[in-house]
Amino acid sequence: MATRRAAAYSIGDLARATGVKPTTIRFYEAESLLPAPARTEGGHRIYGQRHLDRLGFIRHARELGFAMPDIRSLLDLADHPERDCTAAHGVAKAQIAAIDAKLRRLQALRAEISRVAAACGGGRAEECLILEVLADHRHGHCTDPGHGADGDGSSAGVQPAHASAGG
After folding, report:
1. I need a labelling partner for 27 at 20 to 30 A (CA). Which of 70, 102, 133, 144 fits?
2. All structural domains of the chain
3. For 21-38, what is each residue's pLDDT tens digit?
4. SS3 per residue for the chain
């Protein structure tokens, strides 16, 4: 009967298998998110299936937008399967709230850009409302959903400053 060898990956193999760059793998090791790998006599890292699985977990969590402290907490919980998962639920709910806040901000940004773009009729750059609005450094509140509205949510009052000055 043949003995089954455990999977052994170089850092390059692990990087290719997970889509994570070798420098990031080393960073995760330094941060103790990945356990230290075995080393060859020449000092090269040798990773196993546990590293592959854990790195996949980290990569997936990063893709979902979890911050490193949250990933650390989730990994700690995964390392202790006998624990209650209420903490994981809390981390996930907090991430949902953060995503919702980002979506609201993106919607406000889209509304502002749409408002300005709709008011721009083209023409010469010196008369461009888009460029004028971007140059207005007193600005900085575009993420307010009511920004630019005439009270009813419309953008009818948008005009370049030069148009209201008689030209």
Report:
1. 102
2. 1-67 (1.10.1660.10), 84-167 (no CATH)
3. 999 999 999 999 999 999
4. CCCCCCCCECHHHHHHHHCCCHHHHHHHHHCCCCCCCEECCCCCEEECHHHHHHHHHHHHHHHCCCCHHHHHHHHHHHCCCCCCCHHHHHHHHHHHHHHHHHHHHHHHHHHHHHHHHHHCCCCCHHHCHHHHHHHCCCCCCCCCCCCCCCCCCCCCCCCCHHHHCCC
